[in-house]
């Protein structure tokens, strides 16, 4: 009998351990605990009733200011925990919604996703809480939503903060069109290793640790759910929204004070796997995109964080939080 190399056996055990660490998660993350109590905003849209999960943290030393944190495509409100802690310590009220189709919010069977619709849902939540003015801070896909929200509701937006937002370039100009069915086929077959490898290459440019693995395992936990097809379909719909609804052409219309916080090692871009190596090398270059975006937004401030990937608020928290607090406390 042919002997199996010891190194191969060790690698197999490592993969099995990783798989065992991935736990099945409920459709609405019912068995996943958020860092703060979760409430629900109920609303009607597109002929159906939905609920939007959110955390609203009001500190005792209330400074009268509110910050709304908008999550990215592959995340939910829970990943803002340390940001919430730091902001509330300084007296800020903090609102953290899960967008429709994400986290603990409803997962529609059929829905036309637009950034305008998500902005309107978020505005309804803000109004329901009696918040008249708020800083809108968006990360990744949340940056595209934050931009759209600001363009639609400048009277409510005190400041706009964009943290490694996607949508700083129009991928339609370089990437072949993918239908919703194409995005769905890509999502339905994903495993933890697929999710990890994508995030390792794009988000962190090769770096990886357990702080990142935590969020990859959360996505992988959904793949074990018997209703994962619903989650995958919503994910496909939001990919289509991101790809077909760029905000890059409207940055010049932003009329509120804006701060860009950019980890320059980030290489996130939709559709890099669908283009040639040469074209891929021109996409997701945040060391250039941050500066070009600053030039497009009137009077925008830019904070670059060298050698940092897609999630500055997780990878280098102090380097992210220090300039954010300085900006918010002006």
TrEMBL record:
GO annotation, cellular component aspect: membrane
Signal peptide boundaries: 1-19
SUPFAM superfamilies, per the entry: alpha/beta-Hydrolases
Pfam families noted in UniProt: Abhydrolase_1
Domain AB hydrolase-1: 66-315
Keywords attached to this entry: Hydrolase, Signal
A GO BP entry: acylglycerol catabolic process
InterPro entries the UniProt entry points to: AB_hydrolase_1 (IPR000073), AB_hydrolase_fold (IPR029058), AB_hydrolase_sf (IPR050266), Epox_hydrolase-like (IPR000639)
GO molecular function per UniProt: monoacylglycerol lipase activity
Protein name: Alpha/beta hydrolase
């Amino acid at each position: 009998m042919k002997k199996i190399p010891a190194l191969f056996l060790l690698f197999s055990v490592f993969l099995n351990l990783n798989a065992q660490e991935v736990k099945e998660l409920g459709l609405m993350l019912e068995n996943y605990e958020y860092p703060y109590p979760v409430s629900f905003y109920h609303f009607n849209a597109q002929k159906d009733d939905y609920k939007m999960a959110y955390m609203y943290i009001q500190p005792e030393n209330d400074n009268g200011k509110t910050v709304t944190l908008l999550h990215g495509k592959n995340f939910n409100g829970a990943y803002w925990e340390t940001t919430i802690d730091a902001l509330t310590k300084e007296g800020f009220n903090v609102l953290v919604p899960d967008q429709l189709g994400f986290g603990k919010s409803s997962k529609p069977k059929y829905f036309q996703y637009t950034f305008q619709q998500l902005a309107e849902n978020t505005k309804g939540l803000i109004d329901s809480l009696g918040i008249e003015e708020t800083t809108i801070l968006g990360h990744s896909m949340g940056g595209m939503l934050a931009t759209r929200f600001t363009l639609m509701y400048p009277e409510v937006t005190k400041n706009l903060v964009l943290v490694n937002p996607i949508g700083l370039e129009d991928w339609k100009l370089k990437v072949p069109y993918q239908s919703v069915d194409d995005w769905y086929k890509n999502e339905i077959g994903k495993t933890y290793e697929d999710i990890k490898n994508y995030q390792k290459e794009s988000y962190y440019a090769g770096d990886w640790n357990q702080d990142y693995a935590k969020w990859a395992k959360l996505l992988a936990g959904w793949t074990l759910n018997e209703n994962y097809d619903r989650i995958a379909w919503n994910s496909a719909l939001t990919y289509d929204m991101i790809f077909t609804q760029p905000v890059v052409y409207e940055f010049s219309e932003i009329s509120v004070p804006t701060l860009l916080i950019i980890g320059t090692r980030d290489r996130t871009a939709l559709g890099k796997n669908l283009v040639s190596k040469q074209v891929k090398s021109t996409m997701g270059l945040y060391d250039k995109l941050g500066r070009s975006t600053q030039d497009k937004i009137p009077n925008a401030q830019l904070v670059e964080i060298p050698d940092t990937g897609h999630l500055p608020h997780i990878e280098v928290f102090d380097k992210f939080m220090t300039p954010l607090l300085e900006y918010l406390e002006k």
